[in-house]
Amino acid sequence: MKKIIFTEKAPKAIGPYSQAVEVNGTLYISGQVPVNPEIGKMPEGIKEQTEQVMKNIGAILESAGYTFEHVVKSTCLLSDMDNFQAMNEVYGSYYKENPPARAAYGVVKLPLGALIEIETIAVK
After folding, report:
1. CA triple 86-87-88, angle to 5 deg
2. Domain tally for the chain?
3. Which of 5, 36, 77, 82 lies 20 to 30 angstroms, CA to CA, from 116?
4. Do 44 and 32 form a contact (C-beta atoms < 8 A)?
């Protein structure tokens, strides 16, 4: 049975999807863009946007009873692959030991004009 996860500490969905869904000890977090849920805006710059995305993911993980240690897979979408190294610096600070599997793609455009979007899967 699936459980819908929602927290005010992460941006509300901008379409017909849930922030996250938990099924049988696995948490599927929808792609998070760097909207600060307190002010409804995105910061400037790839490092700042990556930091906000990771905070949003962290808030969803916490609300569902998970941590970054439970993350097994991430998919990073970048509007410009030239931002890969800067994104990696921030992303890596959240996974210092035993990082999850990951894919990173350059895409043409992201929702709301974001520079980055990250989706995440965590398992207990």
Report:
1. 90
2. 1
3. 5
4. no
Can you tell me the distance from the alpha carbon of 92 to that of 94, in angstroms, rounded to the nearest whole number? 5
Find residue 106's DSSP bridge partners: 78
Angle at 100 between CA 119 and CA 96, to 5 degrees: 115
59-116 per-position pLDDT tens digit: 999 999 999 999 999 999 999 999 999 999 999 999 999 999 999 999 999 999 999 9
Measured from the Cβ of residue 96, the count of other Cβ atoms closer than 10 Å reads 8
Beta-strand relationship, 101-106 and 71-78: parallel
* CATH number of the domain enclosing 72: 3.30.1330.40
End-to-end CA, the chain: 16
Q: Indicate yes or no: pTM above 0.70.
A: yes
Helix axes 84-92, 46-63, angle to 10 degrees: 40
DSSP 16: S
Domain assignment of residue 91, given as a range: 2-123
Q: How far is CA 38 from CA 11, 56, 66, 102, 121, in A?
A: 8, 11, 22, 28, 24
